[in-house]
Design brief:
This protein is α/β, with parallel strands linked by helices. The protein has 2 domains: 1-214, Rossmann fold; 217-312, Magnesium chelatase subunit I, C-Terminal domain (Helicase, Ruva Protein, domain 3, Orthogonal Bundle), CATH 1.10.8. The protein is 44% helix and 15% strand. The protein contains 14 helices and 11 strands. Helix 10 (221-236) runs parallel beside helix 12, helix 11 packs across helix 12 and helix 12 (270-281) packs antiparallel against helix 14 (297-308). The longest helix has 17 residues, at 246-262. 37% of the residues are buried. Residues 37-178 form the AAA+ ATPase domain. Belongs to the MoxR family.
Length: 321
Amino acid sequence: MSLGKISQAADRIRANVGKVIVGKEDIVDKLIIAILTSGHVLLEDVPGTGKTLLAKALAKSIDGEFKRIQFTPDLLPSDLTGIHFYNQKLAEFEFRPGPLFANIVLADEINRATPRTQSSLLECMEERQVSIDGTTHALGRPFLVIATQNPIEQQGTFPLPEAQLDRFLFKVKMGYPSTEEGIAIMKRFMADSPLEQLEPVIGADEIEAAKQLYTGVQVSDELLGYMLAIVEATRKHPDAALGASPRSSQALLRACQARAAIQGRSYVLPDDVKAMAFPVLAHRIALRSVQRMRPEAAEQVIGGILASVPVPADPPLVGRA
């Protein structure tokens, strides 16, 4: 697979998901980028905006196994990872895998689970494996966690700690459809769900090949400095109690490379950095108590930083030849 074929594969996935999901091309692109970069996505929006449907459509499009986990306060880590149980017929212990053993895992209302259960996701999200009773089990390839949470209803929830938020490549919002999109949705689902007829357009081998290639997208030293300046500015901002971590700069770099690849480019542009800065960095900064109550405050901090950090003047457009 070449870099050009990555954009072709992304076009196929985007078009296939578009048979079910009306609009939301930008969200679909971010999910594709997350798959390429082995990242994960936190979808924050009210119920009924199509989060589950989007995850199912993506899983079908990549011929992957889909599992949905409803997070509740009584959910245990073993409910996610699986358990060893004694099989009386065989007179031996067997491993029963949990729902994490899938390609697309929807962690629905993740903030309703206790911190203990939330922390059980850390190893699988970072290492693509789970350890149970001293035994390590590899997870599927590709592996993507799509977690959801309702920003309005906070009663009975456990806010995600910074260590958990830092594991998510993106935090994005679905948003309500426009009037035209709402009419198109009603027409599309009037008779039957198009999800039932959806067919795969790409396989796991092709995805794994693409994941090995996107890192070949070139980034100039000027743009690397631009990314780092943005990340460092979050640590000095007066409204930030905790700035973006070094992991954030790596995540921003990978996201920019993958965005360029799915758009058919072998080089990163400043526009890639500007587009990826909001979903990559906003959830990775901890605001001071005065600002924390404003949902849009983190995005405003990133917006102010982008406006203040100088964009490289005519950075070398490597890889154009």
